[in-house]
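tool=predict chain=A
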Amino acid sequence: MLKSFEHIGMTVSNMDRAVAFYCGLLGLKLHLRKQMPDGMQVAFLDAGGGMLEVFAPPGGATRAKDVPDGTAGVKHITFHFENIEEIFARLEEAGVEIKERPRFAVHSEMLHRIAFVRDPDGIVVELAERSRNRLS
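tool=predict ok
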């Protein structure tokens, strides 16, 4: 029986930058960080309803590429915020790369307002406020 969403794994080029972005700016909690014998750094960042398992190879990693329409893959990761205007302003002030400014969501049954930014490696991150009709 399914209990919940656990985590998604992702690769970043620099663990310090990733932790600063996801924890320092977005508010995730660093649950575990360690270095593996092969030099790979691994961290678990808790988003409150699931985690990011972040890998930083010892030689770094190239910038993420957007998944084109018609190609299988993860398009973006989304985090739920009470007020996206506030978090968006904080990210913009910090110099985070903006993909799309806050707007009303197309799928209003699920989400009220959304915005998109890129993490330090170019991974698309959606900021979302849930629809008022949506209980969870």
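Residues 1-62 form a domain with the 2,3-Dihydroxybiphenyl 1,2-Dioxygenase; domain 1 fold (CATH 3.10.180.10). The helical segments are 15-25, 84-93.
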